[in-house]
Write a structure and sequence with these properties.
322 residues, alpha/beta, 4-stranded mixed sheet, 63% helix, elongated
Length: 322
């Protein structure tokens, strides 16, 4: 096991791009994102479709952009606007992918000209936003760090390794440990050092942050193994697409809801959604015991990804594909 781990560390010398991305670029991006997340206040950004000019009271919590034509719905999904507001037969219509509370808050503003200051502009804290941002990048980076497995498999090195006393389980376990360490340590150091050196608020104690990021790294490791076994080509490209789309739909960057019960039910099945609910609750002082179902759900997804990946690998080994 130790020989396999040391071998992967040694082989990182030949993967300078992966090493630089995992150990330098990714932590740097995370650190910069955390720094600006703490400094920038995210107001409501409203696209107001109207033919007349309306004067609104100056309120730093809400930005209203008047326009003659309705912007595409994709602007809501990408977070360009919090909501699109217009009138139909003198009735105010508010379109948003965020929560019903946000929709009601915006509707109240347009009807009364006032925003309820007692409510937080964003129910999500800084820590939730930070980990939501990190989640997507760690999912993508996990597959890049699993590069040795497809490489060994395609070059027949995998088969030669298994002729030694090393079993398939030990090989996959060593790959998982390597990926987990390379995901967890740089990301955790980036967040904690940004907090300690610049006084940036991260919303959690360092111990709580370590636990949450360990859960995230474990899930990303299992996901990476699953993707590396299911797809033989363009794994990184496919993973990036899946990670970006599912993280947006799961609300990693902003609270997302379609207003369609069936679609929202399907969105709640995404494992990232469970993680974001867990993180948001912990940041607001709720104990882990209140999120046992989310923890179990994340565990089921993670173990499921790992078992399916292992099953596919064993099956292809028996068939002589690897």
């Amino acid at each position: 096991m130790l020989n396999l781990l040391s071998n992967k560390i040694y082989r990182m010398k030949s993967k300078k791009t992966v090493f630089i991305m995992a150990m330098i670029v990714m932590p740097l991006i995370i650190g910069i994102a955390i720094f600006f997340t703490d400094k920038v206040v995210s107001p409501y950004r409203i696209a107001y479709v109207t033919d007349t000019t309306t004067k609104f009271d100056n309120n730093p919590a809400i930005q209203v952009k008047e326009m003659n034509s309705r912007p595409p719905e994709s602007d809501l999904a990408l977070g360009k606007y919090t909501a699109i507001v217009g009138k139909k037969e003198n009735n105010l219509q508010v379109s948003t992918f965020q929560s019903e509370d946000v929709k009601n808050e915006i509707q109240t503003f347009f009807l009364t000209g006032k925003l309820n200051n007692e409510k937080q502009l964003n129910n999500r804290g800084t820590g939730t936003n930070v980990l939501g941002f990190i989640l997507m990048f760690i999912l993508i980076q996990g597959v890049a760090l699993t590069t040795f497995f497809p490489e060994d498999r395609d070059n027949s090195n995998y088969k030669r390794i298994l002729t030694s006393p090393i079993s398939n389980k030990k090989y996959l376990l060593s790959q998982g440990i390597f990926t987990f360490i390379c995901l967890f340590i740089p990301a955790y150091l980036a967040v904690s050092l940004t907090h300690l050196c610049f006084g940036v608020v991260i919303g959690f104690s360092l111990g709580t942050l370590a636990l949450l990021m360990a859960i995230l790294a474990f899930f990303a490791t299992a996901f990476a193994l699953f993707m590396a076994t299911v797809f033989d080509r363009n794994v990184g490209l496919i993973t990036s697409g899946i990670a970006i789309v599912t993280c947006i739909l799961a609300g990693c960057f902003f609270e997302f809801t379609s207003g369609i019960k069936l679609f929202d039910f399907l969105l709640n099945l995404l494992p990232q959604k469970g993680f974001m609910d867990l993180v948001n609750g912990v940041e607001h002082g709720t104990t882990y015991l209140n999120y046992i179902s989310q923890l179990i759900y994340l565990g089921v997804w993670s173990i499921g990804f790992w078992l399916i990946g292992s099953f596919i690998t064993n099956r292809r080994l028996r068939r002589g594909i690897y």
